[in-house]
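Memo to structure team: turn this sequence into structure tokens by end of day. - J.P.
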Amino acid sequence: MALPCLVAGLALIGCASGRAGAAGSGTGYGASSAESAVAEFLEGVGRRDYPAMARLFGTREGPAERRWGRVETEQRMFVLAGLLSYRSYRLRPLPVGEDGGRARWIADMAGTRRGDVSVPFIVAPHRGRWFVERIVTESLAGS
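Reply from structure team:
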């Protein structure tokens, strides 16, 4: 019972801080589009590339790394990578309005520790870049 609360808490903490970066963007933090932010984040999960994941995690205020620091942000990405581990995924937009220009994407993930699940991602814009702001992990939590 404590693990699901911890994991959900860590994922939700992300929405209160900043997260940035696109692994392949070459610009440092964030991604060029909302879809790219989610896809590049999940590719980082697949590679266990915590710095790449960290560069993509943030809010409308900017990268999480600026709030938490590099070490803490990468530690949080380590936890998320374990939770989000998958065999394959497919992204689809969820056309629901979000506050502040945010976008919502669903990752239909196969081969997670909980089987096949759909995981919502909330993505936020900051200065022309997109950041994974929140990951709704309830479908992945539990034993």
